């Protein structure tokens, strides 16, 4: 039996050489994404393989490797010197806290500004010229006379009678997150406030919210009260779950995914799957449409909890 030696490199050394990466979301076929393929050829793409046993076992390799539990990071500099090595010691704490999932931006063409758009006065760029009434008057014209006291009083009285128009209130900012997924996020925050694990869920049929729930393993001392099962229990007997969508802040585990399969739920929307890969392949194999929104809000809330409650988190996922 021959042991194959695999050359490794530390993730911290990669970051030191190539800089901080950006997280990519591949919404289209990578083979048809010219910008992404250009980054791969430039050795700037890293594939991170995420395991279900925790971040300590995660590893990465340079280039693109398709996988259900893989993440893709784009580095500002080439990673060619690490080609062929397994990158170990993935430390998510080294990533920028406010990193946002983004797609490679398309090329933008820069057009020349027209003459009309250029500033007219080079001494004061983008500032309009100011002239006094005397400057605007022709040489043979006199400057306008000042108003008499009687004329000024009449003008002031007219202005006092005019009612100023009410300013339009600013338009409310629309939450980009699906309202049902937002309900699940609120449930996760509620669980965290109660001293529990911050995972929330919601069940909806079309635009109607049917029920919500959150992880209560700590609060109720019940190992099976996950967020999804708590939500289904709160929904009660519906007769049929046809047309229902299950929302969760985290990719469901096999226990909760089995409940979705059992009740015939055909669509599951999750906030993220980076902290826990869950039963994605299992659900898809049983005909469930799974949508991963990969929200930074969900990732960071759970990641902060895991960092400070590692033992409790390992108990929750059975690690």
Gap from first CA to last CA: 31 Å
Helix content: 25-40%
Rounded to an integer, what's the Rg over CA atoms?
30 Å
pLDDT < 50 stretches: 97-140
State the order of secondary-structure elements, H for helix, E for strand: EHEHEEEEHHHEEHEHEHEHH
In the sheet with the most strands, the strands line up as: 8-7-9-10-11
Strand runs, count:
11
The number of distinct helices, counting runs of at least 4 residues, comes to 10
Provide the β-strand percentage band.
15-25%
Kindly name the structural category: alpha/beta
Nearest-integer average pLDDT = 78
Reported for the largest beta sheet, the result is: 5 strands, mixed
Shape field = globular
Structure description:
The chain is an alpha/beta fold and 319 residues long. Helices cover 29% and strands 15% of the residues. The strands form 3 sheets. A 5-stranded mixed beta sheet has the order 8-7-9-10-11. Strands 2-5-3-4 form a 4-stranded antiparallel beta sheet. Strand 9, helix 7 and strand 10 form a beta-alpha-beta unit. Helix 9 crosses helix 10. It is globular. The relative contact order is 0.10. About 14% of the residues have low confidence.
Question: What is this structure's SSE topology?
Answer:
Layout: E1 8-10, H1 11-18, E2 22-24, H2 34-41, E3 45-49, E4 59-62, E5 70-74, E6 86-88, H3 133-136, H4 149-161, H5 179-193, E7 200-205, E8 208-214, H6 227-235, E9 244-248, H7 254-262, E10 267-270, H8 280-285, E11 289-292, H9 296-308, H10 310-317
Parallel strand pairs: 1-6, 9-10, 10-11
Antiparallel strand pairs: 2-5, 3-4, 3-5, 7-8, 7-9
Helix pairs in contact: 9-10
């Amino acid at each position: 039996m021959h042991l194959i030696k695999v050359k490794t490199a530390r993730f911290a050394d990669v970051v030191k050489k190539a800089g901080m990466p950006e997280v990519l979301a591949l919404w289209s076929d990578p083979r048809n994404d010219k910008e992404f393929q250009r980054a791969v050829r430039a050795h700037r793409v890293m594939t991170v393989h995420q395991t279900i046993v925790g971040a300590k076992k995660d590893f990465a390799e340079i280039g693109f490797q398709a996988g259900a539990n893989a993440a893709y990071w784009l580095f500002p500099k080439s990673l060619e010197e690490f080609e062929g090595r397994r990158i170990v010691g993935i430390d998510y704490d080294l990533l920028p806290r406010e990193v946002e999932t983004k797609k490679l931006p398309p090329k933008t063409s820069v057009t020349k500004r027209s003459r009309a758009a250029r500033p007219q006065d080079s001494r004061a760029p983008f500032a309009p010229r100011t002239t006094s009434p005397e400057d605007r008057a022709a040489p043979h014209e006199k400057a306008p006379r000042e108003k008499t006291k009687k004329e000024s009083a009449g003008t002031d009285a007219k202005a006092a009678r005019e009612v100023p128009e009410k300013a339009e209130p600013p338009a409310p900012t629309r939450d980009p997150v699906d309202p049902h997924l937002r309900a699940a996020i609120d449930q996760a925050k509620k669980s965290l406030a109660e001293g529990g694990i911050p995972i929330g869920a919601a069940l909806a049929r079309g635009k109607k919210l049917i029920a919500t729930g959150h992880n209560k393993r700590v609060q109720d001392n019940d190992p099976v009260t996950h967020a999804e099962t708590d939500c289904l229990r709160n929904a009660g007997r519906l007769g049929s779950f046809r047309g229902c969508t299950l929302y969760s802040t985290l990719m469901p585990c096999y226990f909760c995914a089995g409940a979705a399969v059992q009740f015939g739920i055909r669509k599951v929307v999750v906030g993220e799957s980076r902290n826990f890969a869950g039963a994605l392949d299992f659900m898809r194999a049983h005909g469930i449409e799974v949508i991963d929104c990969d929200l930074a809000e969900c990732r960071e809330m759970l990641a902060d909890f895991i960092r400070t409650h590692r033992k409790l988190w390992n108990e929750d996922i059975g690690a």
